[in-house]
Amino acid sequence: MSIRKKLDLPAIDSYSYKPLWKQVYEVLREAILFGKFRPGEKITELELCQQFNVSRTPVREAIRMLELEEFVLIVPQRGVFVAGIKSKKEINDIFQVRAELEGLASYLTAEHITEKQIKKMKKFTGQLEEHIARGELEDCIKIDISFHEIIYESCENEWLQKFLDSLFEQISRFRSESMSQRGRMEEVLVEYQQLIKAFEKRDAEFARKLAVEHIKSAQKSVLSVFKHQYD
Fold first, then answer.
1. CB atoms within 10 A of CB 174
2. Rounded CA separation 4/120 (Å)
3. What pLDDT, in 10s, does the model give residues 70-91?
4. Closest to 123 measured CA to CA, from 155, 100, 146
5. What is the DSSP string of 67-109?
6. Do 139 and 131 contact (CB within 8 A), yes or no?
7. Average confidence (pLDDT) over 196-213
8. Predicted structure pTM score
9. pLDDT per residue over 162-178, tens digit each?
10. Nearest to 193 by CA among 214, 172, 212, 176
């Protein structure tokens, strides 16, 4: 079975203004982010060449970029693997920092968010509820990303946004497995609805508290997914 048939990856557009390696990189990166390639899974260079109908050069350049961003790991004599989390401590370290930064971002967002942005958040939670009911995990993940992007934009602190973007991507690789756990998406929906209420009331301290609790819940969910690696 081909990779494309199994994973339903989009084709490469040979007429695009983007170089081939960039297109391959973007497709693979999204596949990793949305769980189509799982942590620890091997990525075969030859199969990718056949999948995208390109030579090894753009595939290798795409893999090199993914390695720099720590999305894949190149193991000598063994091949290319989707990067996993190295240890329980790494998970806790990432989420400890993220909880503090998300808390600060939500505090600032409560002070700066506009009615238009709140309305957009409500629209997202409505869509999220529909996707949950239909079991559409990939669409749920897209909504989750969009919801956080509004918070990052609304906090009006560019440095904070940069730090959060970096942390968000580090954990994005494991979001699909975490959010696919029974009941987790329903929890996320409630957490977001509570955050929206805090933003509407301009209650910065309460927004900070809710954001920290949300990140700690996400941390617990990720730890439970990878528990077998550390036992």
1. 22
2. 34
3. 889 999 889 999 887 767 888 8
4. 146
5. HHTTSEEEETTTEEEE-----HHHHHHHHHHHHHHHHHHHHHH
6. yes
7. 98
8. 0.76
9. 999 888 877 776 777 77
10. 214
